[in-house]
Amino acid sequence: MRVLLIEDDPLIGDGLKVGLEKSGFTVDWFANGADGEEALFQAPYAAVILDLGLPEVDGLSILQHWRGQGRVEPVLILTARGDVDERIKGLNLGADDYLPKPFALGEVQARLNALIRRNNGVSAAVISYKNIIFNPQTRKTLLDGQEAALSPKETALLELLLLNKNRVLSKETIESKIYSWDDEVASNAVEVHVHHLRRKLGKNIIKTINKIGYILEDA
Amino acid sequence: MKKLSLRSRLIIFFTLIACAVWAAAGVFSWLETKEKTDEFFDTYQMALARQLAATDWNGVTKEHQKKTDRLIDKIRNADDDDEAIGFAVFDADGRMVFHDDENGKDFSFQNRSGSFVNQIVDDEEWRVVWLKSADGKFLIAVGQELEYREDMAWDMLEEFCAPWGAGLLILLLATILIISRELAPLNKLAEDIKNRRSGDLSPLPADNIPSEILPLISAMNQLLAQIENMLERERSFIADSAHELRTPLTALKIQLEVAQMSADDEKTRNQALQKLQLGIERSSRLVEQLLALSKVESSLSAPQINQEEIDWRQTVIAMIDEYRHEAAGKNIAVSYKIEGCGPIRNGNPVLCSLVVRNLLDNAIKYSPEGAAIDIRIQDEALVVTNSGVTVESRHLDKLGQRFYRPAGQNEKGSGLGLSIVRCIAEYYQCRLRFANTDTGFEVLMQSNDL
User: Fold this and answer.
1) Residue of B250, B405, B408 lying closest to A103 (CB–CB)
2) C-alpha neighbours within 13 Å on the C-beta side of residue B401
3) Which ipTM value was assigned to this complex?
């Protein structure tokens, strides 16, 4: 899942980016509020992590601008002040969840998963499809109860398809959703991942719609 | 006396003074009355003696005495008032010829004339006047008991002093009442202060307070306001510090987690550990600066801080020497010029070197490689300039605010260095000005006196 991270602190930003990418997210990190604000309009993000304590642009005003522009991406705000008012203000301005500093990486990850799940109309903690059970938190995929050995990008692709069941996803959409600006993407990367997933989970699991894209269909 | 209330003291002093004045007046009146009664009775005795002296005592016999005695008895029954006057007549040989049948018969003979003598009669002290009769053959003695005179004087004094005593009593009661009433607002004030909760620093009410006490109240209110101000600063300092510590703590936590989850990825793990170390350094520096700022603030609010003449040359040289390695590391040349006596003439040397240290530290930290830093000590001013870097004008005003760091800083600054300088500058009534110059950035600390 591609996530937008706006955090000015270099150590926290770097840690979140590396840590979240380790657990299967694709992260675009902006230390500058203005750039981050603009970035949301440039790529499809599954969720946003927004630090409110940005030095130049106030995090809350970025949020307000997004919501005013009709952006509905789930936003997780990070606040350093234990101030209840600020949290209430953030939630009222359209934030979906908040985390007060100091927080743990695992917590960010869990909240992001919950936000993305909810945003895709899924409320169960695990996503089931046919004989596959996927757990977004542990990033583990079970095939007939056995753990399938998937790479992080394969997992991300599977998650994306599971969350968009019965919807056709184009190659470009998939690319933009599982790769960040920093990633170098080979032109056949998506095809390769689909191929691997089919090999590992079963030939018929992902259907190719010619010239349009890929779909996970209910049987 | 030291623990008595003002009210009790006023009442005690006033009572003592009133009683002393009353007693002094009493003693004076007593002496006066006594003198006057003495004079009066002396005159009276002398007049009687003169009358008796004019009488012809030749041929006075026992018969006469008896006759007179009876007569006197009659008079005595008619009038009980005993003036304790007695008289006797002696012949030249000291034999008593005649007496008044009372105290007079106990008079002992004294051979003198025309003078008053105090003598013992019947165990009592009497005042007796001796006078020769007109023909010179007899001595007349007219005496009065001294105790009678004293009683008389005492009676008069009593008559005189009683209304004064009553007046004194009324005066004292009125005084106690007035003092109690006038001091009631003070008592109420004391009670109010006593019953205050420790956190209540609202000003004391000044209504109904006598104008003499008002300066005290306003001074106390000023003090309360100062304390409140200080507490507010302290509170916001603690809140800001806690807030500032949260960010590096979060960074540490996250980098640690990244390192933990990268057991199989040595590169990522090493990077995370490196960042962890960076984060720890940043946190320690922040804590150090916080401690320094809190020390500066508390030492500035201490009633007395060590003040001496500041040797700016020595201070600047010492600091440049201390930062020699940092400067050399970035190939920065640090120069200085001493052209005057500096912004603070008499001050605390530790605080003044903190000013130079923080300004130099900032200049080196935020200057690019190969920049030049110049420290100038002028009359009433200290100027630190560094080349090669400017600060956006919208940040200039906010520099020196606690924890303020312009965006895009990769340096591990705490945002406290300039607040420490500002804090010290304010204490020594100096202005702190930040400005961009043609070649770089300049910090000016200037004495307000100028």
Assistant:
1) B250
2) 10
3) 0.77
